[in-house]
Amino acid sequence: VVEAVIERLLIANRGEIAIRIARACRELDIESVAVCSEADIDAPHTLAADRAIAVGPAPAAESYLSIPRIIDAALASGCDAIHPGYGFLSESDAFARACEHARLTFVGPPSRVIAKMGSKIEARRLMREAGVPIVPGEAPDDQSDAGILGVIERVGFPALVKPSEGGGGKGMHAVRDRGQAAEAIQASRREAIAAFGDGTLYVERLIECPRHVEVQIAADDRGGIVHLFERECSVQRRHQKIIEESPSPSISPTLREQIAAQAIRAAEAAAYRNIGTVEFLVDPSARDSRSSFYFLEMNTRLQVEHAVTEEVVGVDLVAAQLLLASGEPLPWVQSALSQRGHSIEARLYAEDPEQQFLPQAGRILLCREPRLPGVRIDAGVREGTLVPIHYDPLLAKVIATGENRNAALRRLRAALRSYPILGIKTNLEFLLRILDHPRFQQGTVDTGFLDTEHAVLTATAEQPVPAFVRAAVEAYKANSQSPSSALTGVGGVSDTPPTPHDPWQELRGWRN
Amino acid sequence: MAEPAVTRIEPGVYRVEHETRAEIVYVAGSTDNAWAFWNGHVFRGNAPAASSARRRPTVTDLAQSLTAPMPAVVRQVITQPGAIVRKGEALIVLEAMKMELPIRAPTDGTVVAVHCREGELVQPDAPLVDLQ
Questions:
Q1: What is the ipTM for the molecules in this complex?
Q2: Which residue of A60, A360, A489 is in closest CB contact with B8?
């Protein structure tokens, strides 16, 4: 048993990942401190840690993204370390530096590594020098609309305009012809400033029909580096991943070895510490295997989809992060790591696929998590939770694991079919349609899949409401209208007295 | 066909026997706006969940009101009263959950009124722009 140096950890995040980190803290006997905005006072993550500190108003810029407020909260609560989770400040080198200055252990790589890899320009330069293959592209010196357009024309159409800082698909826009350029450049710049506080843009060639394959790596501060194999994340909408799996169904064992070797080389070039992910674009049209994949970017943090790696490799990446940040050596040797079986994750979002995936906000009236063999739910919400408009609409991750891809797929489908979330629109039916799509089942999906199959996947179902659903709704209505039935209860079940969180009580006056 | 036999297992959870099978149906919401879930399908009221925010203007509408589809912050007001706009042109940019959502002109027309300003928090169905 290793004794962690960290004694009290501030979790600078919200939602499912904050809960995930709090759980790892309990396992390692580390005290945890949550932070919350005014919109999250009663949120599940606020209650998951040993204590919670309110750090500011609802807008993220004044709470979860405020470096001084987060650092103050950590110092005021006697924390010796901060875990940034993903998103928010996780890839801010300024935040990592502020932690270093405040003598707080930042659970992640050193600030200089985040700065290097966060700058697409610097990351590309490093990778080129290290001999890791990269996608053609350039950083415009002249950041005016005209300057960027000039670079787009040099790189060639179709091109991709994206923020030089940040990741997660935020602010990326495809430019297929000159006419689209101005709107794309301006939107990308605005989104870059809003999300990352820096409007510097980067332009690269858009590789058509690529697959997204990424490699999980881990490094200690004694020079040890291992990879934990790959994840396939080609099911994306506007560069936001929706379904991820490990192993990748689309690459050969030879390609897997080559990509993993390049990921290690990338981590070495970056002088990487802690866990991270090297993302690659795999070009299925390339014949020469040496040019069939390109370094895309390195994510210097925990990924949303880390769970599929945990399931197939049999490790705890968050616990590993905490140990590595404490100065412990890597808990694994490469030769002992292998992939066993198959794991697939689906992200449940509060969004409406019928309305261009508009994020949804509102109260969750009913929520029951499935409990099935091989199924893991990492959720940030529960029954009664108010999903606010201010943050990313991820509600939960459903991770299903089986002895092979078909078994994992079958379990994932069963889990989604028994995961009711009512009161707010979600993408659940959309996820099920993806799982049932022949191309997904064959494992031959590229990153354009959701665009090309959009109509099929979002078609409005006009099927009638089954009679047994109507019968249940009628029974529910009859039950709600006669309060006395709560005591007599059908089938020997009686209602518990209403609690402050009882969604039925809170429903009075609820506006749709 | 026999009447489905309904048993309430716990609040909001119903077991419905029909023909040879038993189904679990989850129900929540108010009696006039109920939500139901069965086997991965979500139903609203007595019909499958349908989009509510899309407003189809009738032929008799002289001015057409573009409304906010969700709670959001007005990031940018691109247009102004009197502006002549083409179909597909972005008039307003909303932002919610770190995503930008351009509100575009559904048809060619003239902007009659702008009902929002930059930085304002708008609620679903709040009128943003009137178009004629």
A1: 0.83
A2: A489
